[in-house]
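Input record, target 12 of the design panel.
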């Protein structure tokens, strides 16, 4: 099992640790509800150094990205990022990812899910027929997500870059907490605002940056946040989690990711996905909230009033900000309209729920 450069910090802070994607990761510190509230209301810090980062360089780098991703990366200029996915040969999803344009038409960084690093690397490499220079920098890259409404104001004194006014899905590179060549990105998977920072752990950079962030945020009650609260925060926003809500068998169109699927270019399985769009999908990923008391869990069956199976739950939780149980799940398209009554099979009971808007929050 791998450690991140911050594992010793988590253990010293009394974090509940558990294996995740081959890493020893913090699940919670003070408790999921408390950590969730810290991010929604002020500021919290996630160690997400387990994520994967690939650098693609050269005159054909953009061509390769265009071929393997669903979104249109030609729209990116230096300092901009986009959310995208890697379709597989059958129109499913190899992974979802972020594409960063470091130097237009020449240098890009792809950020992929921890559990899919090797799989994604192999998939992209298999399509690299024009000699694009590829570097897997995952093992030497630290990634901290500082999220919440107070995140950028807390961090601003640590850098001479203007991060308070950094637009969503843009990034800058510069010195941060005395460490050079730090990439500061207005991204994150919480819906609470904030940034993610990427840097190499050399000459004690990881400890230096971690300590500086917590010193800067002390007056705002900054807290370390585990993967437990990361999951409840993303679910309140209706953000997909790979392996739960999307996978190799789900189409981006079924998952509500048509907005990152651009038919203005050629990409893997485009004809299959385009036909699916023309014919209409048979199932859709929907958000739902529980009417009856109970918490939906991954793979619970979703049924209609007569008890017929119409889908399955992909994610579910008791949402701390909403004080009610919510979930995501695939249902037959006929049951996907807002406010449709559906039923979650929990042991031998059918618990009533209704399809609701996503994001759940706001």
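The sequence produced for target 12 reads:
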């Amino acid at each position: 099992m791998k450690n991140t450069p911050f594992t010793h910090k988590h253990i010293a802070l009394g974090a509940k640790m558990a294996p995740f994607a081959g890493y020893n990761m913090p699940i919670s510190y003070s408790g999921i509800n408390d950590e969730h509230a810290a991010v929604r209301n002020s500021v919290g810090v996630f160690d997400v150094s387990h994520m994967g980062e690939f650098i693609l360089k050269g005159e054909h780098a953009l061509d390769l990205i265009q071929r393997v991703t669903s979104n249109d990366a030609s729209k990116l200029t230096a300092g901009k990022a986009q959310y995208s996915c890697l379709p597989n040969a059958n129109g499913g999803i190899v992974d979802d990812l972020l594409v960063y344009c470091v130097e237009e038409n020449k240098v890009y960084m792809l950020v992929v899910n921890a559990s899919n690093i090797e799989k994604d690397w192999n998939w992209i490499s298999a399509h690299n027929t024009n000699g694009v220079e590829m570097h897997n920098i995952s093992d030497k890259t630290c990634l901290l997500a500082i999220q919440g409404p107070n995140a950028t104001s807390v961090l601003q004194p640590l850098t001479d870059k203007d991060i308070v006014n950094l637009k969503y899905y843009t990034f800058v590179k510069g010195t941060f907490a005395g460490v050079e060549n730090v990439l500061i990105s207005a991204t994150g998977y919480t819906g609470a605002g904030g940034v993610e920072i990427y840097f190499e752990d050399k000459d004690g950079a990881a400890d230096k940056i971690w300590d500086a962030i917590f010193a800067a945020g002390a007056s705002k009650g900054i807290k370390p946040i585990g993967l437990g609260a990361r999951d409840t925060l993303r679910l309140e926003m209706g953000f997909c989690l790979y392996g739960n809500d999307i996978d190799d068998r789900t189409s981006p169109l079924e998952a509500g990711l048509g907005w990152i699927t651009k038919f203005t270019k050629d990409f893997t399985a485009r004809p299959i996905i385009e036909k699916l769009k023309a014919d209409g999908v048979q199932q859709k990923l929907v958000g739902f909230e529980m009417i009856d008391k109970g918490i939906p869990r991954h793979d619970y069956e979703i049924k209609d009033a007569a008890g017929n199976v119409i889908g399955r739950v992909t994610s579910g939780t008791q949402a701390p900000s909403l004080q009610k149980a919510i979930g995501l799940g695939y249902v037959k398209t006929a049951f996907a309209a807002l406010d449709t009554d559906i039923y979650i099979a929990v042991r031998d009971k059918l618990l009533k729920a209704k399809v609701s808007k996503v994001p759940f929050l706001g």
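The mean pLDDT is 98.
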